[in-house]
Amino acid sequence: MEFNTVGVIGAGVMGIGVAQNLAETGHRVVLVDIDEKQLTKARDSIRTNVRMQALFQKKAPAPKPAAVLEKILFTTDYDELKVADFVVENVIEKWDVKQEVYRRIDSICSSNCIFAANTSAISITRIGSATTRPDRVLGMHFMNPVPLKSMVEVIRGFHTSPATLEKGKRFLAEMGKECIVVNDMPGFVSNRVLMLTVNEAIYVVQDQVASAEDVDHIFKTCFGHKMGPLETGDLIGLDTILYSLEVLYESYNDDKFRPCPLLKKMVYAGLHGRKSGRGFYNYDESSIAAAI
């Protein structure tokens, strides 16, 4: 294995998924978060996710929660990243937060360590500018849930070297994943298109054209999508949708990325989707009911 120890920064939904996937593929993981409670939640979530995954696992034998968890160091100490061969960053989609994280890890990690930004919309070139190693920074946009999604959108920043891209591909192969490499513009391919779709679907609900259920039902039955845009928004996190749209709006100065007022209202109310228990659907009840 080329990448024995991997740092994962941020123990939210995406960080949890990346850490779990890496541990399941035999990597040692240093999962860093500033919040001890979030790390405890991450440990519990990984234990539950591995158990649930085992129920649907076609390959035998399925990984054991204890074996996965023993591969992961849960810590608030960034200095533990000194031993990392590769770092995947998953913090909130706010530039000031990301900038501080990259400045910090740039001074801690070895000069050969590669940084992968698991970002929804922020420019990889801009992220690289916060480090002294922009040639060793690339984007890796993982899909949720990470352990179950085989494809990753890889983003080449202005300074990202061919060698870094090749190492990134080998890293993902060790995780059992394939990738598609795209060039660096805010939102890349997936979220430049997806955020517009989710945002417009929210406008449809706000304008009382259709209910959330009917919007999603149309996309699933007419277009064959596995999930509708509002179900997808709930899965990603409506707060992440809002932050990504704000980045796109700022980056392109284009009104088409203006966040829907209903989206803002829901985020301010704490209705973030699955992770909060309620978004356009209620995940606290046995039956899924519309929240709007």
The helix count comes to 11
Helix content: 40-55%
Give the neighbour order of strands across the main sheet. Answer: 3-2-1-4-5-6-7-8
- The Rg value, from CA coordinates, equals 19 Å
Question: CATH first level of the largest domain: which class?
Answer: Alpha Beta
Distance between the termini: 49 Å
Q: What's the total number of strands?
A: 8
- How many separate domains make up the residues? 2
Shape: globular
In CATH terms, the superfamily of the largest domain is NAD(P)-binding Rossmann-like Domain
Order of helices and strands: EHEHHEEHEHEEHEHHHHH
| Largest β-sheet summary | 8 strands, mixed
Find the structural class using helix and strand composition.
Answer: alpha/beta
Q: Low-confidence parts lasting 5 or more residues at pLDDT below 50?
A: 286-292
Rounded mean pLDDT is 94
Features:
single chain; disordered C terminus; alpha/beta; 292 residues; 2 domains; N-(1-d-carboxylethyl)-l-norvaline Dehydrogenase, domain 2; Rossmann fold
Question: What is this entry, summarized?
Answer:
The protein is α/β, with parallel strands linked by helices and about 290 residues long. It has helices spanning about 15-25, 35-55, 65-70, 95-110, 125-130, 160-175, 190-205, 210-225, 230-235, 240-250, 260-270; strands at about 5-10, 30, 70-75, 85-90, 115, 135-140, 150-155, 180-185.
Task: Write up this protein.
The protein is built from eleven helices and eight strands. The protein has an eight-stranded mixed beta sheet. With 292 residues, the protein is of the alpha/beta class. Helix 1 crosses helix 2 (36-56) and helix 7 (190-206) crosses helix 9 (229-236). Helix 6 links the parallel strand 7 and strand 8 (178-183). Residues 286-292 have low confidence and may be disordered.
